Structure formats: structure tokens, C-alpha cells
Amino acid sequence: MRIFDPHIHMTSRTTDDYEAMYAAGVRAVVEPSFWLGQPRTSPASFFDYFDALLGWEPFRAAQHGIAHRCTLALNPKEANDPRCTPVLDALPRYLIKDSVVAVGEIGYDSMTPAEDAALAIQLQLAADHGLPALVHTPHRDKAAGLTRTLDAIRESDLPVEHVVLDHLNETTVGAAADSGCWLGFSIYPDTKMDEERMVRILRVHGTDKVLVNSAADWGRSDPLKTRRVGDAMLGAGFTEDDVDQVLWRNPVAFYGISGRLDLDLDLDSPEPAATHEGNSILRGAPVGGR
Amino acid sequence: LQALPYLPLGSGALALVEDALRANDTRLIAAAVGPYAARHLDPHSWRHAVLKCLFTGVPLTAVADLERRAHADGELARMLADYARERTAASRPVSADLHRALDLTRGDTSRTDPRTGTDPAAVSDRATPTAPADPETPTTPTTPTAPAGSSVPAAQTGTAGPATTSTPVVSSLPEES
Known about the structure:
- The complex is a heterodimer.
- By secondary structure, chain A is an alpha/beta fold.
- Chain A contains 10 helices and 8 strands.
- Chain A has a single domain (about 5-255), classed as TIM Barrel.
- In chain A, helix 7 links the parallel strand 6 (about 165) and strand 7.
- In chain A, helix 4 runs parallel beside helix 5 (about 115-130), helix 8 crosses helix 9 (about 225-235) and helix 9 packs across helix 10.
- Chain B is mostly helical.
- Chain B is built from 7 helices and no strands.
- Chain B has helices at about 15-20, 25-30, 35-40, 45-55, 65-70, 75-90, 95-105.
- Classes of the chains: A alpha/beta, B mainly alpha.
């Protein structure tokens, strides 16, 4: 089973996770920029983070045989902080980077006017750069948030076929599917979706344009949830090809819209002695290790 | 945050409250929904703050002036009912705090503290309503108590399926990604 996790925050995860993910079949990930838990207080803090998603984290992932790409944006929550919004002015020079395969996560948190503005600007940035957009649907007031999100997308120049609506569930999947957007589902241990509910939704809505992710981050989450969904699908009678479509071909097709997804380049691990700007991650690694 | 109501700030410190309400640290969220927020937070932000408490497991007893601000708030009622529907659709329990807040939007203050273990689904016949008194908010105005029989069971508010209850607990770090 080959797995592409289209939404996971590896910056928050350990090398044990990378090893377990590789063993489970994960060969590619996309890491969306998001909120760090602790509020940022200046654009510079974002820029260092973006640089890490473009440089250090892909290097770290490659050490474990996993291709790493990212999506960059001002996240919905911090779009409300006027200290952070100048990030929007600097995004264009980041969005031209080769390993940026979408604009994201954008969308609504509390549905404020500031979030309206940041979402509209960033949907336009995606359209202008030929990039798809990863759009987070809010956790609070989700159904109303989806309606407002779809309005914002329709008012933008970005085609709905270039948008994935993420964190969907039973109450929002119908409207999301009707919109023509791609459908993202985050599988979490306690909140969001679980693998059995995911299988039930796949039975009703089919496997077309469906992306399944672990959204693993610094909260209680599980980077192997993509694999669990694959296993649950097989257990429920889906074919290996169905699983491959959901867990590999669909995310490849979606992020492929960027024209930048060239995964073959780094599926082979770099040499053990490789360094990123002079830094190796191989503290304590066995001689001649991977 | 806890000192804000004692300082002569007017609404000048709202940005601090809004910053804390974006956090996932439940200590900050609980401190942010005190008397200062009750006095100064706009209706939209206040409703989201209540929902955030439910979402992160902060007990609604932390929300100052809940009875007054929730009273006759139809939009809050809609948001609460939608959230209950979402939980039910996911086969997850709907917290007693959510039912209590929903009652308050209808001016019903009779539901007892959810942490006593009372099953809200069974509390349809309330003989002696007790208005929740939060010692943190001594200035809470008296909310008119609705007649005991006026409470509408949760099943009639749009909540799909039978409502279940659970004792609210402060959950682990909630999702943000």
C-alpha cells in the first residue's frame, strides 16, 4: 500500500513517526503551514517557519525515504492579528518556490471580517500563481462556515476544481460534494473523523476526488491514520485499486494541478552523510545506517 | 486576563481577550471568558467564545454572565443545535453543558449544574429551579426564570437522534490543523 498523506504537520512530529510512517507505506506528504499553538507576533516568525518547510523539513523527511512538499499561507486564526497580516504581502515571493504545491491552509476560524479579507486575498494569490488551494473548514459552526467558504470561493477567480475543502464530516460532505471542490477528510483519534466513519462516507459518496489525511500535529493525533483508513477500506470490501486511488492517485492529481509535483526525484534517501546547510540529523545513527 | 475587570480600561483591552480566545490553552480560554468579556465582547465573538469552551472542554461555569447574554439569543441557539447535530452525526456524546446553554437561550435557568451527574434528558420536570450562581460574577443580573414546563427537550431542537450526555472533561489539545 503506497500512501500520500496530503495534510500532516511533520514539524511537530518525531523521527520515530517518520520511521513508522515509512513502514506503514507513506512515501509522500504535504505539510500545510498552520498555527503553532503559541501565537506569532511578527511576520519574521512566519518567514523562518516557511523557510523550515522549504528547507529543513524536506531534508529530514528524505532521510526516512519520504518526499515532502508544502503549502504556504497566512492561517485563518492569525489572519485576525494585525501584527501578522503583513505576511500576505510577502507570500508572492514564497509561492514561486518549487516545493510549494498549493496555497494553504486558508479558510475560516471564527468567521470575522479580517478572515474574509485574508481568504479572498489568498484565493486570488492561488489563482494568480496557478496553484490549488487547501481550504480549512472551521471547527466551530462548521456548516455555516462551509456556506460562507463556498461563497468566497465562487467570488474568487480560482476554479472550484482547484480547491480542496478539508476537515469535512457527515454534516458538510453533501454540500461540499455538490460544490465541485475536492473533498478532504482528517482522521483523528478523538475529534474530526475516524476510519470507520470515513469508510461509511466513501460507501455513499464514492472514491472520486476524496483526499484522506491524518492532519497529525502537536495535538493528540496519529500519523498512521491514513494507513488505518486503507486497512478499514479493504476490510469493508473496497479493492486495492480503490485504496490506491484515495491514498495515492487522488492527492497526486490534486497537488499535481500545481505543475510542480515531481515525486520521483527524492524517493531515494540521500546519502547518510548528507547535510542541510552543514547540519546533519544523524546524531547517534549507526555507522552505515540508512 | 483575570485582572481586566478591575482595571479602568474600557474596551481597550479587547485585543488581549481575542488573542486568548484564539489559543488552545484551556487556562487562557477560561480566563478570557470572564466578566470583562461578558461586558465588552461583541455578540459574534462572544458566541464563538461559548462554542470554543464547549469545543475545548472548558466548563461553561467559566463564562461570566452566561445567563444574561445567552438569553433569547437565537443565533447562539442555532449554533449550539448545529454543533449538537454534528456530534450526534459522528456518534459522539453531546455534553450536558451544551444542553444547559441551549436552555439558557430560551431563558430557562432551571437545569442544574451538569457536573452533578444529572441526566439533562430526564430533567424535563423541574420542581425547584435553581438559578446557577457563579461566585466569580457577583454582578450577574437576575434572569427571569421560565416556568418549569416550558423547556423544550433537545430532541425537538433539531438535534438528530437521541441526545446522550457525558461529563465534560478538559480534553487533550484540540485540533487546529
